[in-house]
Amino acid sequence: MRFLSLPIVCVCLPLIIIQASPTESTSFLFNGFHAKNISLSGIAEVDGRLVRLTNTSSRLFGRAFYPYPIRIKDASTNAVSSFSSIFVFCITPLLAPTLGGHGMAFVMSPSLDSTGIFPSQYLGMLNASDNGNSSNHVFAVEFDTVQDLEFEDINDNHVGINLNSMFSTNSTAAGYWSPSQNASQNASKTPINLKSGDVIQAWIDYDGHRQQLNVSIATIDQTRPQIPLLSVKLNLSEVLKENTYVGFSGSTGVIAGTHRVLSWSFNSNGVAKSLDLSKLPSVVRKVPTVATIQFKVLVSIAVVVSFLILTSLVGLLLYKRSQREIVESWELEFGLHRYSYKDLVLATRKFHEKELLGVGGFGRVYRGVLPKSGFEIAVKRLSRESDQGEREFIAEMASTGRLRHRNLVQLLGWSRRKGELLLVYDYMQNGSLDKLLFGKPSTVLRWEQRRKVVKGIAAGMLYLHEGWEQQILHRDIKASNVLLDADMNAKLGDFGLARLYEHGQNPHTTRVVGTLGYLAPEFARTGKATTATDVYSFGALLLEVVTGRRPIEHRGGNAEDFLLVEGVWELYTNGRLLEAVDKKLDGLFNVEEVEKVLILGLLCSHPDPLARPAMRQVVQILSNEAPLPPLPPYHVNLSSQRPHTDDKEFRSYSSSSAKSWSTLDASTHLSAR
Fold it and tell me: Which residues are identified as catalytic?
C-alpha cells in the first residue's frame, strides 16, 4: 500500500512541499495553484490554476503569500540563510503596452496582515505613513511599470530592490544580459517590456554567507541568463525577522492592469527547484514539444492556404482602414494608444450635450465610458473651426505623450478621423478648480484642500521645468486648467499652448497667447515665454485660490477693472493682508499658512522677472523646507503693461491704481476671457 499511494499523491497535488522542522529549510514548488495552498488578500484570487493579483479595477491591490511563516534567520547569530525563489509572471495592461498600472513585487514580510496597505504606487506593500520605517522588516524585488517621481523611479519599466521603503536601493531597466559571441566584446542587454503581456520568468537568489543578492529575468523562451540583471551586496540581517512570510503583491492605479503569477518555487536554505514550464496553466504559451511542433506544421499549412484565399479581402480591409485612420509621422515616436473613433463615439454617447464637461479655446471636452472596460475617460474634441486646432493637437501630443507625474493630467491616447482630432485623458471626477471656486455658492473648498491644490500644482510645474528630459513651458496656467480627481488631488492639464526647449536653451519669440490676468508683463511686451512667465501665472493662481477672486474682474461701463495682484499688494502694504482671504472660509484657516501663500503669490507675480523664485524654491517654501524670502518693492504699475498686439484674444484694460478692497463687490466674479 505504501508504494500504491505514492502515484496517487503525485497526481492529485500540483505542488511539492517540504515542510521541515524549524531548524531546517522550507521548500515548495507550485506548478499551479489552489486556494487552499495560498493565502489571498485584497482582490487577489486563484483563477484556474494561476494566481491573479489584480484585475481591471482601478486603485486596488492584491496579495498572495505562502500561508505559513518561514524561518529565514538564525536568532542566535543574526545570520540570514541563503534563500532562492523562481517564479513565472505576466503583466497585462488594460489599455496599451505603453500604459502600466501599476506593478507587482516579490515580497518577504513579517505578517500576512494587509490592513492599511495602499494600492497604486505602493504596489500593495506599504502605505504613506509607514513608508521607509525600519520597523516594517520588508524586503521586496519590484517589477514596476509606472515611473513615480515621488519615489525617484528611473523609468516606467524597471526592476528594483526595496528595503522597508518604496524607494529602491538599486534598480535597472528590465531586460536580460546575453554573453557576446566575441570574447573581446562586452555582453549585450536585451530589453523586456514588463507590461507587454508576455510571460516572464524571474530568479531571485540570496547568498547569506557572502551577503550577495542576484536578480535575473527572461522571457520563457530563454534559459536563465548567465549574468544577473541586478547583483548587489546586501545585508538583510537588520531587515528580515527570524520568521517571515513570502509571496507576491500587486496593485493598480488610475490605469488598471492584470498581474498574474503562474508558477513558483522557493527554498529558504538552498537552491529552489526548477519550474516545469510545460505544466504552466493553459492561459499561457507552453514550451513546444515535438508533437506540438508537428501539429503546428499542419496548422501552418492550413493557415497558408487560407491566407492565399483571403489575401484580396484582407488587402481591401487594410486599404479602407488606411483611408479612415491616417497613420501620423509622430505616432510611433510618442507611443500613445490610438483609440477607435467608433469606441469614443460610443463612450461619449455620440458626443451628447449631457456628457459635455466644458468648452475651451480649441474645442470641447466630454465625459465618456469605454464600452468594453467601463473605464471613465475625458475626450477633448478639437474644434474644426479652429485654425490652430491641428497645431495645438500636435503640441499637446508632443508635450504630454510621455509625461508621467501624479500632478499632471495623464494623456491616455488619441484618435483621428478625417479632419477631426481627439485626445483621451484620465477622467477627473471633481472637475476644474475654477468651477469649485466660482461655481455653486454651497460648494466651499476648505483651506486644507486649497493648500493641497497649490502644493500639487507647484510639484507638477517643477517637473515640467526641471524634472523631464526637456524643459516644458506650459504658458496657460490658470484655474480652469487645474483639475481635481476623486481624492481632490490637483492635476495640471491642457497643454495646447505648451512649448518644449532643451535645458539651458534661450526661448524664442512667439505670438503672445494666454489669458489676461495670468500673463507676465514682460511676456506681453516681448512675446518670450520663460519659466519666469509660468511662475507669474502660478502666482496669480495662488492669489486666486486664497482670495476666491479672479485675477481680473471686469467692472463694466466706465468703471476701472479690478486687478487682483494690485488689490492684494495694497492690503499687504497697509498691514491688512488677511482681509484678502476668501470670506467663504469663514475664518477657518491657519493664519501663518495663509499669509505665507499670499506673500508667495505676490512674490511669484512680481513685475520684475528676476525677483520671482524658481519653482524648486516655491516647492521648498510650500513644504516648509525653505524660508519665505523678503518681498522686493512693488514699484511697477501692472496696468501699464498693455500687450503690444492686435490679437483678438486680448482686450486692453486700464487701472491706474487698485481700488480699496472693501469698496469692491466681491460677489461679482466674471471670466477673464
Answer: 476
Do 378 and 365 contact (CB within 8 A), yes or no?
yes
Task: Name, in order, each residue with C-beta under 8 angstroms of 42's C-beta and a sequence gap of 6 or more.
Answer: 53, 60, 61, 62, 63, 114, 117, 124
Band of the pLDDT at 397, cuts 50, 70, 90? low
Residues 109 and 269: beta-carbon distance below 8 Å: no
Is the CB of residue 538 less than 8 Å from the CB of residue 604? yes
- Tens of pLDDT, residues 278-291: 888 865 433 334 44
Neighbouring C-beta atoms of residue 78, cutoff 10 Å: 10
Angle at 199 between CA 194 and CA 200, to 5 degrees: 65
pTM, 2 dp: 0.55
Percent residues over pLDDT 90 in the chain: 52
The Cα–Cα gap between 179 and 645 comes to: 63
Q: Determine the distance from the C-alpha atom of residue 278 to the mean position of all C-alpha atoms in its chain, rounded to a whole number.
A: 36
Q: What domains, with CATH codes, occur in the chain? A: 2-279 (2.60.120.200), 331-426 (3.30.200.20), 433-663 (1.10.510.10)
Say if residue 380 carries a ligand binding annotation.
Answer: yes
Sign of CA dihedral 76, 163, 61, 131: positive
Determine if residue 396 is left, alpha or beta; phi over 0 gives left, psi from -120 to 50 gives alpha, anything else beta: alpha
Q: How many CA atoms lie within 13 A of 135 on its CB side?
A: 2
DSSP of 390-426, one letter per residue?
Answer: HHHHHHHHHHHTT---TTBPPEEEEEEETTEEEEEEE
Q: Angle, nearest 10°, between helix axes 564-573 and 531-547? A: 70
How far is Cα 8 from Cα 30, in angstroms, rounded to an integer? 17
